[in-house]
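yo

u said u wanted the structure for the complex thing, so here. seqs first:
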Amino acid sequence: MQVLRGRAHKFGDDINTDYIISGKYKFKTLDMDELARHVMEDLDPDFYHKIRPGDFIVAGWNFGCGSSREQAPLVIKHARIGAVLAKSFARIFFRNAINTGLPVVECDTDQIEAGDELEVDLARGVVENLTKGVSIPIKPLPPVMLRILEDGGLIAHFQKHGGFKLEGV
Amino acid sequence: MGQTIAEKILSQAAGRQVQAGEIVVARVDQVMAQDGTAPLAIQVFRQMGGKNPFDPKRVNLVIDHSAPSPTESISNLHKMMREFAWEHGCHLYDVGDGVCHQVMVESGRVGPGCVVVGADSHTCTYGALGAFATGVGSTDLAAALISGRLWFKVPETIKVVCHGPLPPGVFAKDLILYLIGRFTADGATYKAVEYTGSAIKELSMEGRFTVANMAVEMGAKVGLMEVDEKTWEWLREHGGGEFTAFSSDPDAVYAKVVEFDLTSISPQVACPHRVDNVSPVEKVAGTKIDQAFIGTCTNGRLEDLRVAAQILAGRKIHPRVRLVVAPASRKVYLQAMREGILATLVEAGAAVVTPGCGPCVGTHNGVPADGEVVVSTANRNFKGRMGNAKAEIYLASPATVAASAIAGEITDPRPFLK
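structre next:
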C-alpha cells in the first residue's frame, strides 16, 4: 500500500455521521461527488473548499458514530480526503470505510495539530508528523479487514472470490 | 467455559463454538434496508455480480425515510427499490406501512436466536426479541443479500443490571437516556449489551424495544434481552414462526457487569447536541419550545401514543407550539384510530403525519426554523439532525413531550399523570 501525504484538518470527539453528511442531502441522490460538496458542512460550511487532494481528517474519540449511512465514508473519499485519523472509530463507520476502500487509521491524534504535514505509511504502521518531527504508531487492522482492504474493498473482494474468502485469515 | 447470549447465537449461526474476539462468517436470517440505504445496496449488489438475492423471503425493503416522497430524485430511488423487490419477490413495505424497525418486529419473521443485519443503525431494536440484530452499511448489506452470510467479530458483552421498579411517570425512554448519560456515546463501542434486571422485566415489549433501540447511542453492536413470556406473547400476536431462545450461562464471561438503581430517577432529557448530554427534567424545565414531535422507531408505538393522549385529553397544546405525531406503523396508526387516541391528539392540536422517519431525520414533515427549539421522542439530537443545524433538539419520553407541548416549555409530565 502506498504512502499517503497531506495536511491535517482537525476535528473533535464524537464526530457523527449527520455531521459528515447531513440526512437532508444524503437521501436524495447516489451521486457521491455531488454529496461530497456538503461534507462536514454543519461544522464548517467552507470545509469542502479547504480540502487539497490527499489531505487528512484528524479527529478524537468515536469518529463516525451515529447512523449506518455508507454515504459518510463515501463522501469523505469523494471529497478527495486521503485517510481519516482518529483515536477511535465507531463500529459501523469503521467497517463501512474498509468496505469502500477509505483508509482509517487509529492512532494518538493529540500529537497532530491543524495544518501539520503528515505522511501515513499503512504498510509500516506509522504516521510521520513531518511538521513536528514525531512518529506516531498506528494500531494494526484485524487480519480480516486487512484482507478486504488489500483486495480493494468488499466489492472487489466479492468480484475476485465470488463471495466471502475470509476463513483462516 | 460458559457463553453469553451473543456468543451462543453466533456459535449457532457459524456452525461452531465461538468465544468473544473470534471472527466468524455467519448465516443471516433476515436482511433489511430502507430508502436511505437500499438504493446504494442495490447498486453495490449489481457491482458485486449479484443476480438474485440468496432468499427473497428473507429480504425486506422499507420505504420510510422520505415517505411519501417529497422530491422527484427521491421518487426515482423509491422506484428503483420497488422494481428490485417486485422482480425478485422480496418483502416490500411501501409508503405508509411504517418505520422499518417497527414493521420488522411486527412481521413475525424476527425472533429469538435470529441473526439480522439491517442497513440502519437502529436495527439493534430487535435485540428486545432476543435476536442478534445489528446495523451495517450498504456494501455489507449487499454482501449479505448475495451470500446470505456476513462476517462478524464476536463481541464481548457488558451486562447491565437495571433494578426497578421505575417510579410513576418514569418510562422506558427515561431509563435508556439515564443509562446513556452514564455510559456516554462510546461507552459500549464494539460490545454487546445485555440488559437485565427487574426494571427490564417489568417493561412491556414496546418499552423493551425503546431500550434496545438506543443501544447504538452508546456505541453497542447489539442490545440483547432475555426471552420471557412477554416475548412469546408478542410473537404469537404477530404470527411469529419457530424460534430457539438463548440465555447466558451462569459462568459466562462478561467484559463488565454494571448495576443501576432506577427506583428513584426522574424523567430524563437529552440536551443539545449530544444524546449522552442527559439531565433530569427538573434541570431543564422551563426551556421554551417551538415544536414537539412524537414518533420514530424509538417512541412511535401504541403505548407511546396512548400516554400522550392521556396527557392531552381535554387540553390544548400551547398556541405557539406545533405538535407533530407520526405513528410508527400502519398497524399502530389503525389501532390508535380505533382506540380514539388520534381523535384526542388531533383535538388537542396535533398534526398527524404518515408513519415514517421524516421529521427525525430531517427529510420532510417538520424541519424546524433557525433558532427554534424542538422536544422530540426520537433517538438522536445531533446538530442538523432534523434538517436545520441552527435548531436545537431535546430528547425525552412521549409523556414529557406531550406535557411540554401543552406548557410551551420543557415540563415534568408527572403532575399531568396524577
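The longest helix of chain B spans residues 72-88. Chain B touches chain A through 55 residues (CB under 8 Å).
cya
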